[in-house]
Design a protein that fits this description.
alpha+beta; Heat Shock Protein 90; five-stranded mixed beta sheet; 13 helices; 68% helix; Bact_2-comp_sensor_kinase; EC 2.7.13.3
Length: 440
């Protein structure tokens, strides 16, 4: 149990002992108060730790929002059995061991039956309230998680937009058109090949713009076409080496990452026939590496690093694995993680946002209504029990409202959490996941 829970139990023990000492204890002495405090502490900590252990166990095995119906049934069964055992144990320690006002035979006779039943009901009311509070805490955490997921979705969309702006680099297009213009007069056949390569490149860009991941094989094939175009443009000034293992080609990388990195190599390094720029693309330990010899070009304007930052951002939205950058005096190297499977993403754009908000608002009202009912039950029933025992302890009538209202509270809870319409939300998510997987 956390420190906050221990402090709460201490305060409950102190408040309970003061209440019983002031209103139900005839002997007002320090010894009597300490005895009352000891008994209250025993009840508070045993019942608190017992119910806390049950709740933590059920949270691990049957989380509220993943198995709501199963958790509700198990919570009802566990708190009834658990509190029955704990209350009988605490009452036995109180009346037989500590105060010694009853023998073991007396304790298990009808004489203490009403007392035990009264204490069990109080414990059940408190436990039901704590379990309901646990559900609300879990619901609040999940709501925060969903908000974070929506922010990530928005961030992903923005990253994809930025990616497109970087992929369709106007400088690359301008330089390519200049090369094409000169080739048309000098070498028409080579100009046709150059145009075909440009067509393949931009067709690939348009095909992959909506995808989160593509196979290494597709990305390498695209990179080879792109390198042919660069080779036509720079001739012997640039050399390309591909060395990717066969076991890596069916795995996945972020689309168009090679194009951005190859463009960076050309942009930031000078290349001449006497000192060619050597670019190597190879696989190494579940990473796709792009390495070039460092021949830094003097630049009037410092690079903003948008292309590389874009790749890092897109990877961060898909995996916890990082993009690694190595730089020395002789080479510059970027390691892209190769992913074994595609992430399971959900396309939420197809959901009508107004309907989602309306359904969520209705759901919140139902939950608030149930907890208002539960809190009223937890406040009113103990008050009726105390009045009944003080006014006419021989004529026990509090069972009728306690049982009748209790059944109503349980039915209300089942209708909200167990047999409600939450299956619709799960079904919508399943359909969206299936459609998204088919699209990928």
């Amino acid at each position: 149990m956390k420190r906050k829970g221990l402090i709460i139990l201490l305060w409950v023990s102190l408040a309970t002992s003061l209440f019983f000492f002031l209103f139900f204890t005839d002997e007002k002495s320090f010894r009597s108060f300490m005895m009352t405090l000891l008994i209250s502490t025993m009840y508070s900590f045993l019942l608190g730790f017992g119910n806390g252990a049950i709740n933590e166990f059920l949270n691990k095995k049957f989380p509220w929002l993943e198995a709501t119906r199963t958790r509700t049934i198990l919570s009802v069964i566990s708190i009834i059995l658990g509190n029955f055992i704990l209350v009988y144990f605490c009452n036995y320690m109180n009346f037989v061991v500590i105060q010694k006002v009853a023998t073991t035979e007396d304790f298990f006779s009808k004489k203490y039956g009403t007392t035990n039943w009264f204490m069990i009901n109080i414990a059940l009311l408190i436990s039901a309230f704590l379990h309901a509070k646990g559900f609300m805490d879990e619901l609040r955490k999940t709501s925060k998680k969903e908000v974070v997921e929506q922010k990530l979705i928005a961030k992903s969309a923005n990253a994809q937009f930025e990616s497109l702006k970087n992929q369709l680099d106007p400088h690359f297009l301008f330089n390519s058109l200049n090369v094409l213009s000169s080739l048309i007069d000098e070498n028409p056949h080579q100009a046709q090949k150059f145009t075909a390569s440009m067509s393949k490149i931009y067709r690939y860009v348009l095909e992959q713009k909506d995808k989160d991941l593509v196979t290494v094989e597709d990305e390498i094939d695209f990179a080879k076409v792109y390198c042919e175009l660069l080779k036509t443009r720079f001739e012997d000034s640039v050399d390309f080496i591909f060395d990717v293992r066969n076991e890596s080609v069916k795995k996945f990388v972020v689309p168009l990452s090679l194009q951005l990195l190859l463009e960076n190599c050309i942009k930031h390094n000078f290349a001449t026939s006497s000192r060619p720029l050597q670019i190597k693309i190879f696989s190494e330990n579940d990473t796709l590496c792009i390495e070039n010899n460092l021949q830094v070009r003097e630049q009037i304007k410092e690079s903003a690093g948008i292309g590389l930052a874009n790749i890092v951002q897109r990877y961060s939205l898909l995996t916890k694995r990082n993009v690694f950058i190595e730089k020395s005096e002789d080479f510059f190297k970027v390691r892209l993680p190769i992913l074994n499977t595609k992430p399971n993403t959900i396309n939420v754009k197809s959901i009508d946002q107004d309907k989602v908000y309306e359904r969520a608002q209705k759901r919140v009202k139902e939950i608030k209504s149930f907890y208002a009912n539960l809190i009223s039950y937890c406040v009113v029933i103990p008050f009726l029990i105390i009045i009944n025992l003080i006014v006419s302890s021989k004529n026990i009538w509090f069972y009728f409202p306690m049982l009748g209202w209790g059944i109503g509270v349980i039915a209300h809870g089942l209708s909200v959490f167990a047999i409600g319409k939450n299956w619709e939300d799960r079904k919508i998510r399943e359909i969206l996941e299936k459609q998204n997987q088919e699209k990928l």
